[in-house]
Each structure stands twice: as structure tokens, then as C-alpha cells.
């Protein structure tokens, strides 16, 4: 599948109708989602025929992208039942098969490296300090091949240090810097739209 085609399909998906500020729910736009998964597949072969998990999947944009790029199976995890309802409808609309699981990522009791690849757009940790690192820590425990994740560029050194020192990463590489458009979703947002610099990371876990 071509990148433009993937971006077009993702652009038709429903997003949060009632975003929850405490969960830092922001939609992963089709531009970023398509490039993230396209890079994972075309540069590294980490999606097609692989078991892919989407942590904090929200309305399922990254899950859908993985399924469209022929992942062997896709599992989306999220704490919010409303988001998972939307994600399920999105999967049905695209006619792709995705399993969705309602759970708290930070309390996930999965044993060992049971998926190939984790893709995620975690909370940036602005409402709950350290939320981004909790997601990364959980992802690094279950992925055997790679973790792809978006983090604010301003946290780059901190992320790299933690991944290599604390989270069992063999490598931690910024693949590209992207502009993340944050639409005015919440009352405390002053401007109509803000764009933040975010890094697309690829982490490679050590084999357990």
C-alpha cells in the first residue's frame, strides 16, 4: 500500500467525540500515523506478518494502520471504554480485524516478550508527570522486535537515557522530527491550534 493511500484511509476515521483531559486524549492525525507505520514497515519490516500491539490506542488510528499494512494480528489497549467503542466502529468501517482490550497500561500483567512490535502515541506527561515513561517501560517489557513511539522533542535526552539505562533498550533512535498539530480540544487551550515538535522513536529491546 502506498503512503498516500494509507493516509487517505486513516483520514476518514472517527476521532474522540468527548476527549478526556486527564487521559491526555489527543487524536493521532493521519499524516503522522501513516508515516509512523509506513516507516516501521518499509524501513524495518516490523509490521507485515507481525503481532502488533497499540498501547493507549484511543480511537484506533495506529491499530488500523498496522492492520492495513498486513500485520498478522493487532491488539489495541486502552483504559477508556468510549474510545474503544469508536475504535471498534473504525475497524468495522475499514473491514480490518483488530482485538481491543480495555485495561490500564501501567498495570498490564503480561509476561515476557509476547508481541513483535509495539506502536504508540502515549500521553506526553503534561497532566500526569511521568505518564509517557510508564507507557515506554510497559512497551519495552512486551515487545521482542521494536517499539515505535512519539515523544516531545524537548524530552529527547531524558527519553534516550531512560530507555538505555532503565528500560532494557539495546538501541534508541530518533527516526524523524514531526510537527504534531494539537487542535483546540479543551477549554484551557487558548489558541485554536498549537503545533508541538515531536520525535518518532524506534527502540530495540534486548532479547530476554
Automatic annotation (TrEMBL):
Domain named Methyltransferase small: residues:
48-139
What family does the Swiss-Prot or TrEMBL record give for this protein? Belongs to the methyltransferase superfamily. PrmA family.
What is this protein's name? Methyltransferase-like protein 5
* Ranges in coiled-coil conformation: 84-111
User: What GO MF annotations does this protein's record show?
Assistant: nucleic acid binding; rRNA (adenine-N6-)-methyltransferase activity
Asked if Coiled coil is a keyword of the record, the answer is yes
UniProt KW Disulfide bond keyword? no
- Spell out the InterPro entries in the cross-references: DNA_methylase_N6_adenine_CS, rRNA_MeTrfase/Polyamine_Synth, SAM-dependent_MTases_sf, Small_mtfrase_dom
Q: Which domain of life is it from?
A: Eukaryota
Keyword terms, alphabetized:
Coiled coil
Amino acid at each position: 500500500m502506498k503512503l498516500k493511500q494509507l493516509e487517505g484511509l486513516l483520514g476518514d476515521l472517527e476521532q474522540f467525540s468527548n476527549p478526556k483531559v486527564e487521559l491526555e486524549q489527543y487524536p493521532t492525525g493521519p499524516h503522522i500515523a501513516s508515516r509512523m507505520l509506513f516507516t516501521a514497515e518499509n524501513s524495518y519490516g516490523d509490521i507485515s506478518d507481525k503481532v502488533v500491539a497499540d498501547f493507549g490506542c484511543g480511537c484506533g488510528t495506529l491499530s488500523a494502520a498496522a492492520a492495513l499494512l498486513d500485520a498478522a494480528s493487532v491488539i489495541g489497549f486502552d483504559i477508556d471504554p468510549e474510545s474503544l467503542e469508536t475504535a471498534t466502529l473504525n475497524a468495522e468501517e475499514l473491514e480490518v480485524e483488530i482485538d481491543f482490550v480495555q485495561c490500564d497500561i501501567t498495570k498490564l500483567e503480561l509476561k515476557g516478550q509476547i508481541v513483535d512490535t509495539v506502536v504508540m502515541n502515549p500521553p506526553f506527561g503534561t497532566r500526569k508527570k511521568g505518564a509517557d515513561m510508564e507507557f515506554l517501560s510497559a512497551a519495552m517489557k512486551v515487545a521482542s522486535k521494536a517499539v515505535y513511539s512519539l515523544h516531545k522533542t524537548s524530552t529527547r535526552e531524558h527519553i534516550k537515557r531512560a530507555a538505555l539505562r532503565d528500560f532494557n533498550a539495546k538501541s534508541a533512535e530518533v527516526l524523524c522530527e514531526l510537527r504534531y498539530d494539537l487542535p483546540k480540544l479543551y477549554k484551557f487551550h487558548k489558541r485554536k491550534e498549537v503545533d508541538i515538535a515531536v520525535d518518532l522513536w524506534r527502540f530495540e529491546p534486548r532479547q530476554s
